[in-house]
Amino acid sequence: MNHVRPIASPTTVRATAIAGLVLLSVLLDAPGVLAQERRPAIVSATATLTVLKGSVRHVPAGSTQAHPATDGMNLTAGDRVLTGLRAEALITFLDGSTLEVMPESDVAVKQAEPSKQGSAIVVRINVGMVWARVVRLVDPKSSFSLESNTATATVHDGLIGAHQFEDGSFVCWTKAGRLTVTDRHDRMLTLLPGEKTVLKGDQPPAPQPFAVHQSVLRVTATANVTPLILMDDEVRVAGFVAPGVEVNQVFGSFTGVGEGAVRIVEVPAGAPGPFMLVLEGLADGPFSLTLNGAFKGQMIYQQQLSGKIMKGQRLLAQISQVLDPATLGDPKTAKIQSGKITELQHLTGPLPGKILLSADELASVGGSR
Q: Residue of 59, 125, 204, 271 with fewest CB within 10 Å of its CB?
């Protein structure tokens, strides 16, 4: 069993929340003490923009003039979001689906009709790259589409992304969920998780393997805890904040539930870190987790942690890696040589990152405590 010590929060979280979208900011006075949420505030019934980092601009519907975007501002159908060099933004829709806008991108919210039963969301990518977490809804006709001049990629739920290049070529992929791709000649292709397709010129769509980084971190935790990873940029998070409530702001990552109800978080890891891992107890009792570092699908290191946790208690650990010096120049191809995770310590502050949840998701978070 690990020795657990108190530690301050790695980051702070702003506190704004909604009737339709809620920014989760939960404070713990001490381990095992129930969290108290700050008062919600009404925001957009369509979408909310979160500035993750860098320079982000906003073009209102019907305008061509770009203005500096405000963190937490409302978005409506027709609005555009432009990110600068090394800038990233997150669009959260009413149903809880999120779209991460990567650096040097220009996207438009073409259609946004979210509801508890059926949603129809269409995002147009004028140029650049996006990453989306699409929530599962009751209505099988619900859809989330990424659209370009050359193709449209549509999913019911899952983890998907796309890149519109300036030369007109379009690449889309899926990490979870079946993605249906239709090109401008009405040719259709269904991609399975782990696949991508490249559309350039008149070539027909065809499946190819998809991977973001050759090095990845993977955390597998028992069902009585929710794992959440804060990336080395201390901005983006991926993981769980309640049973069935996922947060995925990390391009190319995976969040899901495996056999035996274990929770899995996998993130690209072509960097030394540190990465922060937060565990929250869903019930009193023992827990365990396994950390794997892999390169090109081959495991490089593995470490296991176990202990006891109380419901509502949060524990924090830091993950650091050693990379092959010859591969340090490019995170996509960097090779991990080793890694380690520190002892778990008490987290006595808020969850890291900026986390927006739908009203239904927030209810799940409250019900899990």
A: 204
Q: Which positions ≥6 away from 47 have C-beta within 8 Å? A: 21, 74, 75, 76, 91, 92, 93, 94, 109, 112
Closest C-alpha to 31, from 291, 248, 307 = 307
Name the segment(s) of the chain with CATH classification 2.60.120.1440: 47-209
Q: Nearest to residue 70, comparing CAs of 16, 130, 147?
A: 16
Instruction: Please answer whether residues 192 and 178 qualify as being in contact, where contact means their C-beta atoms are separated by less than 8 angstroms.
Output: yes
Q: What is residue 276's DSSP assignment?
A: E
CA distance 70 to 14: 13
Local mean pLDDT, 10-residue blocks, the chain (369 residues):
42 35 36 33 65 95 94 92 96 90 96 70 96 83 90 93 94 94 93 94 87 91 96 93 86 90 94 95 95 94 94 95 91 93 89 79 62
pTM: 0.79
